[in-house]
Amino acid sequence: MRLSRRTLLAGSAAMLASPALGQGAFPNKPIKIVVPYAPGGASDFSARILSEQMNKKLGQPVLVENRPGASSNIAAEAAIRAPADGYTLFMLGAANTINATLYDKLSFNFIRDVAPVAGIMRIPLIMVVNPSIPARTAAELIGYAKANPGKLNFGSGGVGTSNHLAGELFKSATATDLVHVPYKGTPAAYTDLMSGKIELMWDNIVAATPHLKSGKLKAIAVTSAQRAPSLPDVPTMAESGVPEFEAVSWIGALVPTGTPKDIVDKIHTDLVAVLRMPEVKEQLAQSGAVVVGNTPEQFASWNRNEIAKWSKAVQLSGAKAD
Asked: Which of 210, 195, 203, 123 is nearest to 155 (CA)?
């Protein structure tokens, strides 16, 4: 039987439009989730919870690969340069949107080279102070800082980290003169904060909560738009007189640009279904997280807004990474 030229062209176009044709329906082999940090952190914790349930949803192994280093840039580049076929996901976070302007020379563009799948979770930062500071609210702390310009020191886990830049945003929003003291990681900062060598700090709610419960630190406000479910009595910055202040730790999933839309949609649908499972919500809540599960378009908008926000903070701080 002879085929017309039109029929042959239509068949060829269909083959080009369907990346799974000839390979079976997606997925037909293991999927890898690249985590930019060592095992044990929030990104790794959430990836392993999701991978267990995604195994069941997708009918293929979903493996977690930890690739720490260079403030998550090593993992980001590896994931972005992977084939755009849906078999490599990347667990990005606030550090990646900070790095977009913190680093002058990156080999990739964080907006151009990624296809957002969904936001996974957000973890509020919390402003904590040494109990000796005579302030119980953000308004009282602002007043105290203005009465003592340059005398309050805030710690962070290092220059360019989210807890450093949250402080810079606070300084700008409140016109206060606070002094940044960077440490090689937040554990050292906590030691000096509790001993009174520094006066305040912003950090994720999970790390700070044990020190609040022990009475060694005092909570002032959370930096999320809504109160944190794990500390419902602590007001937000907005409620405390610092409007529109939001600086949270967060995690989301993306794939390389060029991944076919039907594959992105498939991953998104199954990922959101997993995030809505009561047992998954409960497990993620243990890390102080609020589950997101938004659309790719909403997550893309979030990424753009985060880059703009942290770009302002980087400029205010003058921070630069080598």
From this structure: 203
CATH of domain 29-123+249-317: 3.40.190.150
The whole-angstrom separation of Cα 57 and Cα 175 is: 50
Instruction: Let me know if domain 124-222 sits in CATH 3.30.428.10.
Output: no
Q: Mind listing the pLDDT tens digit of every residue in the chain (322 residues)?
A: 344 444 434 444 444 444 443 356 899 999 999 999 999 888 898 999 999 999 998 889 999 999 999 889 999 999 999 999 999 999 999 999 999 999 988 999 988 999 999 999 999 999 999 999 999 999 999 999 999 999 999 999 999 999 999 999 999 999 999 999 999 989 999 999 999 999 999 999 988 999 999 999 999 999 999 999 889 999 999 999 999 899 999 999 999 999 999 999 999 999 999 999 999 999 988 778 899 999 999 999 999 999 999 999 999 999 888 6
Domain range list for the chain: 29-123+249-317, 124-222
Which of 16-45 are b and which e, b meaning 16 or more Cβ less than 10 Å from the residue's Cβ?
A: eeebbeeeeebbeeebbbbbbbeeebbbbb
CB within 8 A of 179, min separation 6: which ones? 150, 152, 153, 154
Q: Please check whether residue 268 is in contact with residue 259, taking contact to mean a CB–CB distance below 8 angstroms.
A: no
Q: What token pair was written down for 160?
A: 């360019």
Please tell me if the domain spanning 29-123+249-317 has the same topology as the one spanning 124-222. Answer: yes
